[in-house]
Fold this protein.
Amino acid sequence: MANQEDIFKKVISHAKEYGYVFQSSEIYDGLSAVYDYAQNGAELKKNIREYWWRAMVQLNKNIVGIDAAIFMHPTTWKASGHVDAFNDPMIDNKDSKKRYRADVLVEDYTAKIESKIEKEVKKAAKRFGDSFDKAQFLATNPRVVEYQKKIDAILKRLGRSLENEDLADVKALIEELEIVCPVSGSKNWTDVKQFNLMFGTKLGASADSAMDLYLRPETAQGIFVNFLNVQKTGRMKIPFGIAQTGKAFRNEIVARQFIFRMREFEQMEMQFFVKPGSQKEWYEAWKENRMKWHLSLGMGDENYRFHDHEKLAHYADAASDIEFRFPFGFKELEGIHSRTDFDLGAHEEYSGKKLQYFDHEDNESYVPYVVETSIGLDRMFLAVFSHSLKEETLENNSTRTVLKLPAVLAPTKAAVLPLVKKDGLPEIAHQIVEDLKWDFNVVYDEKDAVGRRYRRQDAVGTPFCITVDHQSLEDQTVTLRHRDTMEQQRVAIAELNGIIAKEVDMKSWLVKM
Ligand code: GAP
């Protein structure tokens, strides 16, 4: 079986080869952690965004959507805490001049010890065969217990130092563990410094009047500052939500793993405003709702799990991640946070404007509490794309590469293929494209043998192929081939629209929520 790294490499090369994701500015050797979505990628991304928007905005009477600007008044980021606290601890190696996240260097070190434990487990499993009890082995094998103790002690110290902002101790830890720079191999480190992740820019033409701005690091603040405008103009009653999708920017120090961690990315966020005291209930409800949304796409219940945060940010009273099994293991896909009244309260303080809601039922005004759901669109794209890419061995021992995207998200819903380029078959195929294009993205393809065309559509993720043959001339039927099962059925041309709609309509997927 291919290892995780090979699988991930295959995902990245497939995304390029089939027009999904390109490195940004590739002709200039690219820009690190910035990517462009190509002809199929843009469609897949749009469909994921639409699937989220419909579930959030269209299907909930009490949620409305907005589209706030990327530029915001700079005081926004003072109030939100991003100017003072949106930092990562970084360290430079003086020989290679490479910059690292100090905590990641330490975590990579513990991951190496972790892999030693895994090796011990594998060896023991082989030795003991069916009678092997993994839990007992982990708890009692002296070498493994020692490794685990070491990991726990390191991570505990790292956590404590970061929490106390004791950056000298983070450096001391790196030195004590004798961590070397992966590039130069040296231990010649600078001090650890905090590095703010926001990108700065300037608004205005002349140097003295220009205003320092930030590119937003999250879309949420555009919702908080518009809270009262939306509430009043939309005559919204609490509880209600405001949703938004849009670009966010973070100067990530360690930006790797393709589109998992990018410097320019897109978020889909929803802030739900509730009465203080009811936040726990809503937090649980949104956790459940969001998990159902993910499961409705049919990518396997076993590939998702919650990770409840024990250590909470100062403004949160509960937080959980929905993690997905990416090719490199379970990692955060979405966050659900109970953010109390921190943001609205801070904006009241910094702007001097009241951001309160008058509750007619209770005859009182209050700053609402907020439960937020926040998912990265690019990360969701990676989850869908990497999960869908399969290498299958067929009955005749040949292999096929197939991108089993949920049909509702697939960029192209059907490919129309005349069996041969003559005898009037292309004309019928073109007419089918003309009829279907009003409802679905469809393509026409007449190049190569039909078997090769099927493989091409499998690899790009098209759920249906429609083949026009000589029988079509006589009885107006075609062959409909299903991507996942490769089953073929004979159907009337007039029925095509209905059959495809049943499989790709958002409604038939979203009702599973
Ligand atoms: N408003 C809350 C917020 O921004 P976050 O946990 O920092 O919370 C939410 O980000 C989601 O945004 C993450 O779960 C992830 O899916 C996505 N995300 C965050 N940083 C990202 C990055 N550098 N590249 C791609 N996606 C990112």
Remarks:
- The pocket of glycyl-adenosine-5'-phosphate is lined by residues 218, 220, 250, 252, 261-262, 265, 267, 269, 332-335, 372, 374-376, 378-379 (CB under 6 Å).
